[in-house]
Amino acid sequence: MNKHSKIYVAGHNGLVGSAILRYLQTQNFDQLLVRRRAELDLTRQADVEEFFAQQRPEYVFLAAAKVGGIHANNTYPAEFIRDNLLIQNHIIDAAYRFGVKKLTFLGSTCIYPKLAPQPMPEECLLTGSLEPTNEWYAIAKIAGIKMCQAYRKQYGFNAISVMPTNLYGQGDNFHLENAHVLPALIRRFHDAKQQKLPEVVVWGTGSPRREFLHVDDLATACVFLMQHYDQPEIVNIGTGQEVSIRELAQLIKDIVGYQGKLIFDESKPDGTPRKLSDVSKLTQLGWQAQINLEDGLKHTYQWFLANQNNIRE
Ligand code: GDP
Predict the structure, then answer these.
(1) Which atom of ligand 1 is nearest to the CA of 185?
(2) For residue 64, which of 102, 171, 179, 279 sits 20 to 30 Å off, Cα-Cα?
(3) Measuring from atom 28 of ligand 1, which residue has the nearest CA?
């Protein structure tokens, strides 16, 4: 990939795609190709094929996906499995058919078994049952990995798959119900501070542990792997560090400056108990996360404050 390569970022309005696009722009890549959903519906195969036939991108970052937090995954299972399968099938197939040189498929560490060894190495894929709250999304992502591997094996298509841990940062979805925990709590603590509410509810027991990677770090990792990794095996992208949901909530409470109490609603699901990625493979390849959680959270809250009137939901 060089500075004049034609690069398509699928999903450029989302958290991940927008970060990849920003990073490529700062690195002076000058042929970046994007399409808004209204211009190109990725769930329609004929439209995707026509786009690839006309535009002939050389590199593709497949960051378009239907994503959401534990509640959204549990509530809209049909949409999660259908939309993700459609989008990825269409893009991977069209990329191969229309001569793309290399494609990077974005998965998730929720593809690993619910009770995977911690930290989770790439090799534990398909060694046990999935976490039920997000199995629909996970099955779609596993199908995407297998499709990349199959197209490499049968057709020699250079598709790689990367598995980011829980992501956050500017451009996130801050919906109170459907978002992931980190943006949902920023929003809830912020609203509670504004409205001077005495307490804020955090879902579950607070004991699950999660790893959080800032999306600007993810973007540099994706570009790094696009340039330096050409193997069928998946690669985890994370920090290798985790916090409990209770610790995360406390950290966000302090950053937002909320003075009230924290309440844990144990009627809500905890999801998988731990989800820490083993990042030794990526470290050996020469990449490491740079943004620590506290700095990343402060930056994300600043972004939320500056953009709260037109954030995505
Ligand atoms: P997960 O990593 O796939 O489980 O996705 P989430 O980011 O949605 O949830 C992570 C953990 O945070 C789970 O244990 C949730 O129960 C917990 N959590 C606590 N409060 C919230 C909240 O307001 N929204 C979400 N989405 N999760 C919450």
Answers:
(1) 23
(2) 279
(3) 181
